[in-house]
């Protein structure tokens, strides 16, 4: 950076100042040996203010020309403020990014939770519908079983009534038949064949008079006259 050359401003004294200076007073704005009241009316305040401003400007310009702007306290203060603001901005951006990431994560969790709740609700509704359908089916089956049992009971009752009616009719028919048919006569016992003893007899020989008995001529056994295998009457044990 180029150094700036500072020119010292040249101030011109007014005619009154020159006149005072010619009388032996080098600075007309300073008090005279006779006291401040002797020169109170002759002090040029405008000239004093102008000289002070010129001195201030000259010192400022000389200081600006000799010192780099980056080394001034104002620049360093501004630089420090800028660095602090930049750091805060960086931190704010990082926090904003973290907040956005957290918000996205929270949204994903919320969406997942909503999906899980929807699926759970759908499953509960499906289970409730199935349970209701099962109850209705069981109710229908119970009603059908009750109707079937009632129908069977009525059918059995009708069958019993029909059997009783038929039994009553048969009983009445039998009574009527008994009243119409005369009582049967008692049967007489059939005559028993008469047996006769013929004395001695020979086993296997012909005989007459079925049922007749005789003593065997060989031993003391009793022989009976009856039909043999050949269809004829013979003496047999």
Automatic annotation (TrEMBL):
Biased composition (Low complexity): 142-152, 165-182
Ranges of biased composition (kind: Pro residues): 183-192
Annotated spans, Disordered: 1-42, 85-223
Compositional bias ranges of the Basic and acidic residues kind: 108-141, 153-164
Protein name: Uncharacterized protein
Organism of derivation: Bombiscardovia coagulans
């Amino acid at each position: 950076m180029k150094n700036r050359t500072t020119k010292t401003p040249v101030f011109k004294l007014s005619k009154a100042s020159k006149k005072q200076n010619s009388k032996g007073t080098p600075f007309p704005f300073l008090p005279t040996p006779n006291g401040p009241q002797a020169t109170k009316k002759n002090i040029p305040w405008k000239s004093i203010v102008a000289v002070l401003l010129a001195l201030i400007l000259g010192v400022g310009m000389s200081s600006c020309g000799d010192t780099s702007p980056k080394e001034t306290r104002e620049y360093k203060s501004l630089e420090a403020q800028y660095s602090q603001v930049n750091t805060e901005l960086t931190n704010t951006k990082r926090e904003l990014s973290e907040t956005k990431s957290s918000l996205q994560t929270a949204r994903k969790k919320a969406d997942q939770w909503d999906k899980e709740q929807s699926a759970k609700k759908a499953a509960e509704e499906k289970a409730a519908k199935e349970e209701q359908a099962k109850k209705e089916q069981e109710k229908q089956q119970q009603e059908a079983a009750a109707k079937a049992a009632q129908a069977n009971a009525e059918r059995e009752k009708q069958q019993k009534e029909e059997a009783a009616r038929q039994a009553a009719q048969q009983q009445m028919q039998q009574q009527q038949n008994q009243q119409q048919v005369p009582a049967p006569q008692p049967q007489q016992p059939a005559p028993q064949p008469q047996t006769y003893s013929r004395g001695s007899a020979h086993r296997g020989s012909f005989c007459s008079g079925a049922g007749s008995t005789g003593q065997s001529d060989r031993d003391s056994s009793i022989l009976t006259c009856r039909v043999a295998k050949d269809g004829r009457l013979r003496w047999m044990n």
